[in-house]
Each structure stands twice: as structure tokens, then as C-alpha cells.
Amino acid sequence: MSERKFGEGAQPSPVLTRRRLVLGGSLLGGALVVGYAATNFGAVAAGALSVGAVDVNPGVFGPFIKIDEAGWVTVVNRYQEMGQGTHAGLAAIVAEELDADWEMVRFESAPANAAVYRDVTMGIQGTGASHAIAGSWNQLRQAGAAARAMFVQAAARKWGLPVDSIGVRNGVVYHLASQRSATFVDLLADAAKIAPPEHPKLKDPKDYKLIGTEIVRRKDSQSKSNGTELYTQDVRLPDMLVAMVAHPSHFGGKLGSLDMGAARKVPGVVDVFEIARGVAVVAKDTWSARLGRDALKINWDDAKAETRSSDELRALYREIAKGKTDVTGAAFQTKGKVDDAFDGELFEASFDFPYLANAPMEPMNCVASVDGRRVKLTFAAQIQTVDQINCALAAITLPGMVEIETLPAGGSFGRRGTLTSDYIVECVNIARHVGGGRPVKLVWTREDDMSSGYYRPMAHHKVSIKCDEGGLPIAWRHNIVSQAIVPFGANELPTHGVKNSPYLSVASVVDARIFTPKLAVPPGLWRSVGNSQSAMVMEHTVDLLARRAQRDPAEYRRAIFTKVGNVRKLAVLDLVCKKAGWGGPLDAGWARGLAIHECFGTVVAQVAEVSVLGGNLRVRRVVCAVDCGMAIAPNQIAAQIEGGVCFGLGAALYGRITLDHGIPQETNFDAYRVLRMDEAPAVETHIVPSKKTPTGIGEPGVPPIAPAVANALLSLTGRPTSSLPFVI
Amino acid sequence: MKLNVNGEDRDFDGDPNMPLLWVLRDHLSLSGTKFGCGIAQCGACTVHLNGKAARSCSVLAAEAQGMKITTIEGVSAGHRLLVAWVKHDVPQCGYCQSGQIMQAAALLAEKPKPTDADIDAAMSGNICRCGTYRRIKAAIKDAAGVA
Ligand code: FES
Ligand code: FES
Questions:
Q1: Is residue A184 located within the same domain as residue A296?
Q2: Structural domain includes residue A451
Q3: Which of A402, A421, A443 is the last residue of a domain?
Q4: A225, A243, A261: which is the final residue of a domain?
Q5: CATH number, domain containing residue A142
Q6: Nearest Cα to A497, choosing from A370, A565, A595?
Q7: Do the domain assignments include residue A313?
Q8: How far apart, in whole angstroms, are the C-alpha atoms of residue A469 and residue A547?
Q9: Which end of chain B is more exposed for a tag (fewer CB within 10 A), N or C?
Q10: Please, which contacts does B8-13 make with residues 24 or more away whose CB atoms are closer than 8 Å?
């Protein structure tokens, strides 16, 4: 019953196939894609990556829109749906320009093919940086408008009427004067004969009927409530084996000696073998694989492993930030002459951040089969192109020969987007050993998932600031210590949120550096990436500066934003203060804390109401103001802000992966505490009206909450926070 | 052995020490019940045993024998909780939600008009990493007809 024929939905109808031959994919090579190529690493590279790939049938209406004989408008989502509700926003953009009936719009996941489905900015197919909506805005509006124009044109021909006398509403093409109308289905065959316009006319936003309204809701709430949604964990294929892997207990450890005798004897175990990252047990079902793995006798070789503890690393990071080690800093922002700018009285603060696990609800898993040079993956892929490349290397084939069917993810928060494709390659290695195209489902336990690394890296920030008489920064020195999150280029990601911050802009001297120690613990992308740390540093520091200058934190920020001309932050700040009743009365024992941060182009401000009555830190209400450009799906924007607050708050209150002699101590939800229902604050989301290109919403809700709480604590207790998680 | 699942007697011939979760998922093709932690900490695997919420990852097949097991697949399509969940667009990634619904259904069976405190007490063993807690609460209250 949970078996499913894969790829079924991807079969083009005969009409569409014929049409493709005629059109030669003119939408694909035409206005909709060309023009972005120059900003990408480009069509050529993407094309090369796609050699041997599953043929993507662009269909009559291009690669993003399918309309069938039953009247369904299917929007092809090239991004990972991991909960962020992207599909609804993307579908709304198409449906708006197409004037489709929202009830007849659905979505499906795109196959992996960078030539067709790469993100226009990243140049590869993948999901990250809260970019799905921003990256699709122009492309999907044009695709929708082009399809609409084809229907209008078809009707005009059929009825012998001028094109501009014909309208479209809710999937019905009509001519008012003559009372004629036809559905998309009625006109499908005729529309297919029309060449798609290269520059279709886009709607004026004032005519939007869908975008920005409450009509835009998730399309998957039903299946995600009644248990029918199919996740990687639920895939069942004929003859499929289930694999578990014993991994080294230390990062950088490897296999020493192995006795697999007992494991092989466990009923249901089919095979046990060594792979690059440990020992694989394949079995007929999950439980047998688990028992088989438990029966392995392994000695790990930790000669080259990371064996330091968190305390040692924290002390080391502090030394690095002071420039006392051989890890040298690289400047990421400098301005003015340092000379004597930091002489005299300085404000100094430092912040320690622990390793954090993403801990999505669905532990990592993957289904793979390898048949000669053909690799088939069925799982919640986040960065398809990178996964194709890594798996091709593992299976000695071409990236295009790695077919990916992308399933929804039971959360990711960045964990499924690693540049090594760690667990995916692991699954491919196992499937390759099994061979013959036999599908293997790799199942990680929660403990496997949480001790696997790809953590938000440990970090240390140290700031030294000189202020003018009014208390505003005039010289800002900032040292960051963090592993590089991506292994190439400058160590850019941890600087997000510090670099070009208005607080640095207002200073006339800036000396900001990043120090990049190398450790065997793999760092990863944790929802909002560097921003979740930098927001804490910047926003708490600014509150401390305001306090030092005896100024109101909101007024202090307003002065800086005004001085540097940051109108977006000013508007968001004003809105949040108004809605939160900033400065107004509050129950005894409660205080408000404010923070505002820009993350991936979206500005979010939060005011948290906090108390520490009875020694318990409680957050009861968080008022949020958001500028994410034009709001496409307000309900989903609110949902993402609510979720972001809970995610960031749980991490700030409890989140920490502690290394004890290199071994992660928190490996399940008993020790790795996360936010639970009784601790979830009421979250109110207020959106700043905007006509600008939409920006992302999946991540920007996370960063402000920790400093908002820290700032409330400051006002309650007078004590600054210098590390997370909070200690009360 | 025989296991009574969603009103049907089902045969299971595997390891009686297998957690019910894996019996349901791997042997009875009922994959709506999710694996999240395996140690009764997250609630993703929640089912009903004789009408009471239980963590199927921590109940052995042998222990479930003779009990009436209900999974998310056994919740009728028009159930007021399912209706409320969709109305409030509760799910994000959705992975925790069958467990949430099963927990909420057990709560309403026991307390048809729960207070906020009742809901917190009943639901705080169910983790949602996407942070849909407040929508869950709103949906439960909606389904229960309490303001
Ligand atoms: S999987 Fe059973 S409670 Fe988490
Ligand atoms: S909806 Fe994702 S964990 Fe609850």
C-alpha cells in the first residue's frame, strides 16, 4: 500500500511529446532561461553535468508548467520541499500570471537536471539561502504569463476575435461581449499549436488576485496530516534491502579491526561489509539491520581522529581570536585607518557558540540502486547537482547518469545539503556493493544522525568598539573564529550578518577578520547559517552599547539606521515597536527584548516578552515584523516565522553538542533538548507592505530570537550574555 | 502471532521482540507511523493501544498482542482533527504530524474540552522540529470546539 511506482507522474502525455518535437523546447532555450546564463557558471557547465540525464520533457508550456486533460495545472518545483512551503509560493506565482483556478493547481518535484532546473543564481540545482521564491520570481511569472497568452491566442483564433478583447479568470478564457467562454481543457490542443511569446506581458501587481492573499495555502496539508505523504523513510521497492552502518566513534577515526561473525548470524541479515566510512549491514528489514549492527565487534583506529573536548576547543578559539596562535586572520571588512582608532576606552565583549545539530525530525536516510553505470536515488535531495557529482564519483559514472527522484524531506534545516553528500554517497557505496540494480534503503538512527557532524560550527566572536560622545560606534574591531563551512573560497558564511552591518557602516574605522581553524568535525549549514550566531553578537552588543550610553535600545538603533540611511530596517523597527507596544507597561517580572537582523535579503525584527520568575526562563510572546519584499503567501510567511522562532529559541535555550574527548555527548532528544509545546511562545507576524522582488522566508525568522531574549534578560537582570545556550 | 491493527487481525511471524513501530512500518506496510528517535522521546511513532496513546518504538510486538492497535491509517478521513489540521495549515515538513494527531485524538477521547494546560500536558512529549506547536494547539481547540 505504501509502494509506489516511481516516475509515473513524469510521463509526458502523447500530445506533449509530439509538441516538444515541433517546438524543440523553445521555452527552454528562449526568453525564460537565456539571460540568466551569463550570471551562472552557466548553461554549458549545466549541460555537461546533464549528459546522460533523464530527458526532461519541457512540454508545451515549458519545464515548469504542465496542464492536463483533466484540467490540473501542475507546477514543477525544482526546489526541496522540506516544510518551508515553497511549493505554495511557486504555484501561486504561476497561477497568478496564468489566471488559473487555485483549486486546480498542484505541484510535483522536478527531476534532477541542472540544464533545465538549476537555480538562476546558484547555477546548479539545489535549495538554500532561502532563495526559492526570489530565484523563481521572474522565471515563473514569465512562464505563467506565456502560457496564459497561448490560451488567449488560441481562443482569439477559434472565435475570430482580437486578442485584447479576451480575458482569463479562474482557468476560464472568456469574451465578455459575446458571452463566449472556454476552459483551459477545451483550448488545450489549440494552445499547444501557439508559439509561446518571448516577452509575455506581466500583470501589474495591483491586479493580483492570488499573490499576497490568504487564498494561497499549502497544497500538502492533507497528505501531511493523514499519514499518506511519502518520505524517504517510507519508500518500499520490490526486493529492497535495508542498510545500517557502524560509523567511527570519533570524527576522523577509521576502521581498526572487525569481527563480523556474530552479525552475519543475525536472522534477516543478508550481508556485512566494509565501506569507506565504516561497516555496512544489509538486511531484509530495519530491525534485523539494527540487530546485525549491534552484533558487530569493532575496534576503531583513532590515531588521526579529533580527540579534544569542547572546553579545550573553546579555550583554543579564544586564544585564536586574540591572535595568539598560528591561525592567522583574514580581513573580511576594513575601513579607515586603524592607527590610534582603538586607543582609549573601549567596549569589549566576546561570545562563545557550541556545535549544534540540525536534528530534523526525519533522521538522514536514502534509497539507492546501482546498475552498472546507472545510479538511481530516491530521497529528499536538497542540492541535487552536487549529489549527482559526488555520487557519480563514487559509482564511477557521469553526473547525468545519477537519476534523482526528489521526495519531501521530514525537515532538513540544512542537514540534507552537504557538499560531500555524506549519507547519500554512503548509500550509493552500499548499493554498488550489493549491485545488480537492487534498491537499498540506508536508515540512520537518531544517534547516527546526531553524531554525524555537519553541525553548525562552534564559533567565537570578539568585538572591541570605540564610541563617540553620543555612544554610537566610531571604530569597530571584530574577530570571528569558525571553521570554514564550505571548503573553497574565502570563509564567507560565518561573516554573514557582520559584514556590511549598519553598525559597521556607521563606524568610520572597521577592522573585521575571520580566523579559520581546521578540525575533523565536519561543519554544516544550519538554518540561517552564520546569521544565527552573528545576529546574537551584533544585536546583543548593540543593546549593551545602548545601555552604556543610557539610551533606549530602539531609539539607539533608529539613530544608527537613520544615519546610514537604512530605510528598510527603520520601517521594520517602527512596525515591530508599534505592534509590540515597545516602551509600554508590562506585567511585573516581565521584560521586552528587541532584535533586528537581515538574513538572505529579508529583514526581521522581533520583540520577545521574557521572564525569569522562579528561576525559569520563559518566553511567552514574540512579536515579529518582516520585510521580505512582496509577500506571496502571507500564511506561509507567518508559519515560517513561527517555526523559525521555535527553532532558534530551542537552540538558544538548550542547544549544544558537547565533545568529550572528541565524542559527541548529545545523540538523541533526551540529551539534545529542543523546544516543546509548553515552551512555545505565541508568535505574531506583521508584514511590511512592499512592491519589491520577494526575498526568502525559510531562514530569516531564526536569527533575531536569541538576541531578543538576551536583551530582555539584560533588561531584567542587568547581566549580559556571553555564550549560548543561556544559563539561568 | 496475530496483531489487531485498525480493526483487522494481521499476521506477523517475525521477531516478537521487534518494536511495534518496525512491525507496522516494515511488515504491515503502515508507514504513516514515523520513526523519529527510537527511545520514546519524540512522539513521532505514536499509536493507540486500547485507545491510549503509546510510543510504538518502545512497545514490543509481543506486548502489543491482544491489544487494539490504532494507527494514523485507522483515523477516519473526515475526523475533526484532520479537518482542523488542514484548516490551520498546521504541517510544515509534516513528519511529526501523524504522531501529533494520534496524541491529540487520545487527548480528546479523554478530555473532550481540553484547556490550554491540558493540551500542553498531553502534547509536550511530541516534538515538532518545524515549530508548528501553536497551530497544533489552535487546531486541537478548533476541533474540540473550545475557544
Ligand atoms: S520514535 Fe518513538 S517516540 Fe520517537
Ligand atoms: S512539521 Fe516538521 S517536525 Fe513537525
A1: no
A2: no
A3: A443
A4: A225
A5: 3.30.365.10
A6: A595
A7: no
A8: 14
A9: C
A10: B12/B61
Of B24, B31, B54, B50, nearest to A231 (Cα)? B31
Rounded to whole angstroms, how far apart are CA atoms A87 and A632? Answer: 11
Instruction: Kindly give the number of the ligand 2 atom that is closest to the alpha carbon of B96.
Output: 4
Work out the angle at residue B103's Cα, subtended by the Cα atoms of residues B100 and B117, and round it to the nearest 5 degrees: 95
Q: Which helix (H) or strand (E) covers residue A292, if one does?
A: helix A286-294
Q: Can you give the pLDDT at residue A45?
A: 66
Tens of pLDDT, residue by residue over A695-720, are 999 999 999 999 999 999 999 999 99
- State mean pLDDT over A655-679: 98
Predicted local distance difference test score (pLDDT) of residue A32: 24
Identify the structural domains of chain B with CATH numbers, from first to last. Answer: 2-74 (3.10.20.30), 80-144 (1.10.150.120)
For residue A8, name the pLDDT band (cuts at 50, 70, 90). very low
> pLDDT tens digit string along A396-435?
999 999 999 999 999 999 999 999 999 999 999 999 999 9
**A552 plus A607 within the same structural domain:** yes
The angle, 0 to 180 degrees and rounded to 10, between the axes of the packed helices A634-654 and A531-548 is 80
Whether residue A331 lies inside any domain: the answer is no
CA A266–ligand 1 middle distance (angstroms): 24
Domain total of chain A: 3
Position A612 pLDDT exceeds 60? yes
pLDDT band per the 50, 70, 90 thresholds, residue A477:
very high
Query: Does the beta-carbon distance from B34 to A680 stay under 8 Å?
Result: no
Q: For residue B91, what is the nearest residue in chain A, using CA coordinates?
A: A221
Q: Could you tell me the strand order of the sheet in which A473-482 lies? A: A329-335, A509-515, A473-482, A459-467, A347-353
Contact A226/B77, CB-based, under 8 Å?
yes
Tell me which ligand sits closest to the C-alpha of residue B45.
1
Closest Cα in chain B, distance from residue A404 (Å) = 20
Regarding the beta carbon of B43 and ligand 2, being less than 6 Å apart is answered: no
pLDDT at position A294:
98
Looking at the structure, do residues A287 and A410 belong to the same domain, yes or no?
A: yes
Whether residue A123 is found in the same domain as residue A251: no
Do both A380 and A509 map to the same domain?
no
- What are the pLDDT digits (tens) for A550-591? 999 999 999 999 999 999 999 999 999 999 999 999 999 999
Give the mean pLDDT of chain A: 91
Tell me the C-alpha distance between A708 and A599, whole Å: 16
Residues whose CB is less than 8 angstroms from the CB of residue A652 and which lie 6 or more positions away in sequence, other chains included: A536, A705, A706, A709, A710, A724, A725, A726
Sign of CA dihedral A45, A364, A233, B94: negative
Residue-wise pLDDT for A282-325, tens only, equals: 999 999 999 999 999 999 999 999 999 999 999 999 999 999 99
Minimum CA distance residue for ligand 2 atom 4: B128
A248 and A190 part of one domain: no
Cα separations in angstroms, A586 against A615, A649, A728? 19, 21, 21
Number of Cβ atoms within 10 Å of the Cβ of A334: 12
| Residue A28 pLDDT greater than 50, yes or no | no
Q: What chain B residue is nearest to A240 in terms of C-alpha separation?
A: B26
Same domain? A178 vs A212: yes
In the chain, the amino acid numbered B101 is I
Distance CA B10, CA B2 (A): 5
Q: Is B129 in the pocket of ligand 1 (CB under 6 A)?
A: no
A395 and A477 inside one domain: no
pLDDT tens string B30-72: 999 999 999 999 999 999 999 999 999 999 999 999 999 999 9
Q: What pLDDT is stored for residue A16 in this prediction?
A: 28
Task: Domain of residue A137: give its range.
Answer: 2-225
